[in-house]
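hiii, so i know i said id send this last week but things got crazy w the move. better late than never?? heres the sequnce for the chain we talked about at the cafe, plus the structure i predicted for it. fair warning i was half asleep when i ran it
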Amino acid sequence: MPTTNAEPRYGAVAQALHWTIAGLIVVQFVLAKLAERLPLGMHKLILLARHKSFGMTILALAVLRLAWRLANPPPPLPPGMRRAAKTTAAATHTAIYALLFAMPLTGWLMSSAKNYSVSWFGLFTWPNLIGPNEPAFKLLRETHGILSKLLFALVILHVLAALKHHFWDRDDVLRRMLPVRRPRMRS
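okay and structure toks below
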């Protein structure tokens, strides 16, 4: 499989970044849900430390993914796709990219405002972005929570759109992001 994007498929690098980030987003939601149910204690702090590490990993991968996408434009959408659907797809992708940056940054700022360190799997600690500030912490925690709900909704929309393309429209939109090329489905 080629590493760069070429019509009609995404290349191996774009696919690897896409699926790695997708998997890490699932991990993030699971870690956050597990941690929010626990009382403050060592187990919760360990889960939150992992959540922060994976969040910073997503931020780094999002930077790489955006740089890769700018250097390797995506394959074109199907020619028969309606303009409204293309506009919705572009808006959804833009919003997801924005949230891939906003989520880890608000989490990092939130930790900084509470003077909690953000370690990357115990290997190094990221610097605090702001000093301790309880009102900022509360605002950032609220913002992080709202953004997580928005990201969840957009990811569900993205998955449903991919499945619609695959099963309803019977086009190659989903297949072009899959690592294994399968023949087009026929009615």
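btw The mean pLDDT is 93. thought thatd interest u
miss u guys!!
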